[in-house]
């Protein structure tokens, strides 16, 4: 049986071959048209112009308007003054010897032996006593000597210091005059010991000042005893800081309505004015007075103990001004009431009715009959004498010796104190300038430093005299003025963090586009340069 072909039918499924579809072409990123060389140059010129404006115009203006002016200061020399290397304080005191009863050769021999004895006793070369023969017709002020020794013959060897003149009277037996060939003399040793005793307090005070400041060891005297150092420390704490002018306030405070007036002007003129006059070469004084009725003290106890003295002043109600016209004020209070000081108090003797308040003034308790309406000058004699004594203590006047000698010693002590304080201020200013490089130093500060060092040099060369005190006073004032310059003090409280906080919000939005534009332009320039190099290499290969 032969195979028959299958009939064809249009409804029969037919096997067809499906041709694969052609893949769609991948999408290609359309590149921007190439920039024209003129556009590239224009963009580069725009970016360059912005940066030229910033560099050539903006930066100079910013630098000019924000640069802190710093005047040149001699920092090394200032530190030398502060360290005590620029000046060696020396106080050469001239002592005049009047020996009219001796022959010239005998007087010269006694002076020579006394000078040798003084040099052997002196352990502080900075305080040197130089002896010279004086004329009987000249006083200490005329020959420039700090003290005059008057030698007279007598039965024994005695010494007495004149209470009103800088004169030391020494009597000696005739047999104590040294021979021309003698190498020592009892009279010379006695005179030297009396001079050393007379100036012992001054030498100790100057030694204390130098030891408490940054003075090189070779310039310092030998150490003081603990008792002497403690006594000088208390005196320094008690006395006021030096000032050219002090304001004296005299106050009458009463617990009731009487007394209501007092002869304070007459009492000051009679009992206190002489001391103010002799202090005038060192300090000036201004005076005012006041009367306060119904003034209740801070302590109501009738008998005041040691603990009550510190709270007696009623600062809340009493009109006491701390300073007038910039000058430190010294208060002298006369309180009329029924209070008394207990005899057991260590701050006053059993019969004393006053006490001194360190760096402030004095309070005097005055007992009067209840019907007293007016306080006379005679009644104020004892209070004014007490105020005068305490004024000398508050101004740092030495306690031993005659008053003229104490005042001349005060001038030398103040000269040393002012010189050391001015030198210390210069050192502080130099260290401040080096520690803060961004601090402003105006030209006025440099001028003040120059004046300070000039007057310091003059003061150092003339220590021991009124001229040295005047120069030391000017140097200290100029140093303080330079250190506390207002424009400098303001810079101390403007740290660098504040500058960042100011500049960042202002310059950030401007700097970012400029920097990014410059970076992109540099990248484009490097790309064009690389393409030109590749094209050049292909042309060479062809």
UniProtKB/TrEMBL annotation:
It is found in: Endoplasmic reticulum membrane. It is a multi-pass membrane protein. Pfam families: PIG-S. Its main location: endoplasmic reticulum. It comes from the Eukaryota. Keywords: Endoplasmic reticulum, Glycoprotein, GPI-anchor biosynthesis, Membrane, Transmembrane, Transmembrane helix. Residues 1-39 are annotated as: Disordered. GO terms for cellular component: GPI-anchor transamidase complex. The chain crosses the membrane at residues 46-63, 500-520. Pathway: Glycolipid biosynthesis; glycosylphosphatidylinositol-anchor biosynthesis. Residues 1-17 have a biased composition (Polar residues). GO terms for biological process: attachment of GPI anchor to protein; GPI anchor biosynthetic process. Signal peptide: none annotated. Belongs to the PIGS family. This is Phosphatidylinositol-glycan biosynthesis class S protein.
